[in-house]
Amino acid sequence: MVYSNALDTTExxxxxxxxxxxxxxxxxxxxxxxxxxxxxxxxxxxxxxxxTTFKKTVEKDITQFLQSRIRESDILIKLSTxxxxxxxxxxxxxxxxxxxxxxxxxxxxxxxxxLFQCNEISFSAGIAEIGNSQAALDEIFHSARKLFSxxxxxxxxxxxxxxxxxxxxKIRVSIIEDDNIFQKVLLLALTKLPLKxxxxxxxxxxxxxxxxxxxxxxxxxxxxxxxxDILPKKNGFEVxxxxxxxxxxxRFITFMMTKKKVEEDMLYAYENxxxxxxxxxxxxxxxxxxxxxxxxxxxx
Amino acid sequence: MLLSILNFLxxxxxxxxxxxxxxVIFSYSIMLIFASIELxxxxxxxRTEIEEDYIDVIYTKPVxxxxxxxxxEVGVVESIHSLLSLRYPLTEIIVVNDGSTDLTQEKVIEQFxxxxxxxxxxxxxxxxxxxxxxxxxxxxxxxxxxxxxxGKADALNVGINIAQYPYFCSIDGDxxxxxxxLLHVMKPIILSDEEVIATGGNIRIANxxxxxxxxxxESSNSSNLLVVMxxxxxxRAFLLGRIALSKLNLVLIISGAxxxxxxxxxxxxxxxxxxxxxxxxxxxxxxxxFIKEKKLKKRIEFVPDPVCFTEAPQSLGVLRKQRRRWxxxxxxxxxxxxxxxxxxxxxxxxxxxxxxxxLVECLGPLIELGGxxxxxxxxxxxxxxxxxxxxxxxxxxxxxxxxxxxxxxLEAWSTNTYPKRIVVIRLIFMALTEIFWYKPLTxxxxxxxxxxxxRGRSEWxxxxxxxxxxxxxx
Amino acid sequence: MMYLSxxxxxxxxxxxxxxxxxxxxxxxxxxxxxxxxxxxxxxYLDAEQENWYTYFSSAGEISESLIPKTxxxxxxxxxxxxxxxxxVSDPTIKEKINQFSNKYLREHYLTLLRSKKWSIxxxxxKRIANFEIECLEECQKFKGKNTSKEENFQLLKIFxxxxxxxxxxxxxxxxxxxxxxxxxxxxxxxxxxxxxRIITNIEDLPKAGQxxxxxxxxxxxxxxxxxFLESQLLNEHQEIRIRTLKAIHSIGVVRExxxxxxxxxxxxxEERLMMAKLLGNLPLxxxxxxxxxLLEDESWWVRSQAAKTIGKDKDGLDYLKNFSKTTGDKYAMxxxxxxxxxxxx
Lengths: 300, 474, 345
Description:
The complex is a heterotrimer.
Chain A: H1 3-7, E1 15-17, H2 19-36, E2 40-49, H3 55-69, E3 75-78, E4 84-89, H4 94-106, H5 114-118, E5 122-130, H6 137-150, E6 157-160, E7 169-176, H7 180-191, E8 198-205, H8 208-213, E9 223-228, H9 236-244, E10 252-258, H10 263-271, E11 276-279, H11 284-296
Parallel strand pairs in A: 1-3, 5-6, 7-8, 7-9, 9-10, 10-11
Antiparallel strand pairs in A: 2-4, 2-5, 3-4
Chain B: H1 2-42, E1 63-69, H2 76-84, E2 91-98, H3 104-112, E3 114-117, E4 130-136, E5 142-147, H4 152-162, E6 167-171, E7 175-177, H5 181-191, E8 196-205, E9 209-212, E10 215-219, H6 225-247, E11 258-262, H7 263-268, H8 279-293, E12 299-310, H9 316-336, H10 347-381, H11 384-414, H12 421-433, H13 438-456
Helix pairs in contact in B: 1-6, 1-10, 1-11, 6-11, 6-12, 8-9, 9-10, 9-13, 10-11, 10-13, 11-12
Chain C: H1 6-57, H2 71-87, H3 91-113, H4 118-131, H5 136-140, H6 149-162, H7 167-174, H8 180-189, H9 192-200, H10 207-220, H11 226-232, H12 238-251, H13 258-264, H14 269-278, H15 284-295, H16 300-312, H17 316-326, H18 330-341
């Protein structure tokens, strides 16, 4: 068996875990999905046909080969079910996982890849993107296997979409604006904003002090703040400063609305954590687009 | 023989008092009519603008705001907050700690995260030594200057030296500004292409108003009678004087509690004088004098919009000290520039404003107090004097009460600062009682001021410290 | 003193008291009416705000309830429109406001124009200018001479969209007595085409107008005005030259340094000060020798500005370090050191 030696030249990069730890690892990664707002992909890889005689050694070689192909952040598990492997790609979405599998499949044409040169083997792959915490590994495997059994040819990729839907995240929004009419306009614009992944929980305030006195900004939710630079009682800069002092202040996304175009003030505000400046008067459609964009960037 | 001399004297004084009263009532009535015409013109003028006037840097002139603070640990932070929420495009705030012995400096440093910086001062005006300069990490335009104690005028001069903008605004550590305050007082300057070199705002009393973090909320009524009386007094001072004087470019007093000056001209006249009590009034007189001497086409104006709120004294003791001080300051400024009086070289300032201030504002109290005593004496003497006493009393009513009531109603009509009916009725009622208690008291205190002035003139040094004066003297 | 009898005085006082009471009652009733009106306005605002938003943000027809029936409701509509115009720039919303006010508010504002009270007329003119209501004929009835400065100002704003052909004439006729501020506000609100037309007649404007015009060109930050501005550098009036330097500085483009070099040695410190700012738009290695002159300038302002400008350059601190070692000028050194100690600020 020559190929075993040859395989050793490629280094293993990712982690190889055993099946008993698989569920614990999955739980951990799943919990991270929500916290870091980045999806996780689970891949089930099944060998369609292989030389029965060398079953054990081939499986070992395949494991080694796979381990050499995954990234450092990915995890590979050899399942106890014969000729099945599971890979966690984290953080990765469906597209990245598909690209990964495609690369893997393409290497069968590659003269350098000794594994495919020496063995007459073919794979099927099932990809599941995990976007919510309801996901269960066994369910995914079960669906994947069902899809595999229906297919007619090998080297195909199947998708399990059951858990792709991201959980709707609650985002707090504060509008701090002293013009009552415009406050209402902003409120309406945001309330009517079509968002799939997020639910906006909006409160309005007429001055900085009222906002800082409320408990509203103290939760751990991501928090979008839309405020004027000049406000009664405590102005926008003071609110900004108070927020920056809080632990985990990164969860605040701040839009500062201004009428005075004083560059020094703007530079200072950007340095102190303002994400976006809005010059009044501004375009409402543009404002909505900016809010959407900023929110969509929350999920990577 | 004795009786006829007495008769003659009584008649003589009676006539002086009578003529004085008629002159005063006449001039106040004219000013009231003047004010009504002015207010009538702007009545119902809708001030909401789309461009929100002057908010853009291209229209406005940047202003340095100077806050002299001597032992103001209670109010200084609140004051700075109110300055930070001013609607104005470009300002810097310079808090001058005049060698405070309390926690003024520590409080400011802590609240606004001040860090020491290096700054070379340009000593355009001579002052006491500046120890250090701090800049806020939260608000880059907020500076704190620590200096050796030298009095309010000296602190203001330090502020002028540090200020980088062409206009500066002086403000007392304990006065609170409306958001639009600076816009309002800068308006005459901007609109006149800088022909106006100094402006002062209309001062109101903050007691009984809900003031918080620099914003003033709805007016409720203060229960303190002294405070209510002072509200009436401030209102009247504004309607029966300031508007008319400003229109005629005769302004000699703009309150130190909130005023804006062109730095260039103030430096030209040597800044604030450190050896006077009423340094704010004295500066205005100096400027007026300079304008007239150099025949400049410049003006000093008073802004009718209520822009600045100040805490009025609530006890007789404090009020007495305040009034004594104002009056002393007033006479000092007049005396220092006495050669302007009746000097046609100084135009209407010399022929109208100075005589008016000497007679009505300065010596008035003496005559009025004489009037009170005269009335009492007449009642005792009876006979023909009785009629005299009644005439004088009626004039007092006309002068003291009716003019006040008229100004309260005029105010309620034009600006409606006190939207609640009950407050207005209360003010009117109090105005009617004024001649029986408040008026004689203030007259006595002013008399005391005159005496202090006469005594104090030889002892300069003692007066140089502290600077409490603000608000109108009448 | 008998000419002043008790009886006469009492009569005067009684008359005055009666007058005051009447005035007081009038004020009180007026106040009540005002409150009532405000309440009506608030009700309208509460009820219709959301409908207005829907109308503005979607293609639907206007609903009957939005059309104001009383003065109170007109005030409510006005408040909503003003808030939108102040804060929102969507062209469709502006268009809708314009159409609506031409259709339903025009009559109301025309009545205001006919008022004898100056303040009411001004209110009307302001809104006509804000909502761009078509009423050229009515506005032209205001004859230049009897019209106050404030009215003329609003009229010019209106003519800038209703009577564009004759705008320059109107400007010359009606702008007497305008301060720089008024000119600026006017020039800010007019479009490029009109600005371009004014450039050719700039000499006819009073000085305040010329200053304002140059300032506004600066604030537009548009290179296309550089030709005109550079031509103004040779103007005989010092103030115009200073403003021009300032405007070019705010555009931030210095095309040919040679055109400006003379100002470094100008006899007026204000011009040298502007140069200390303007040179900051060029790389330090091109301007180093001029900055040396400015840092050693006799005026504090010029020295201070020069040091500040250099401090903002990326190589500025090195330059200042080197400068403070080699200069013989004590004041200049002091200034350089202040910037160095604060790390360039």
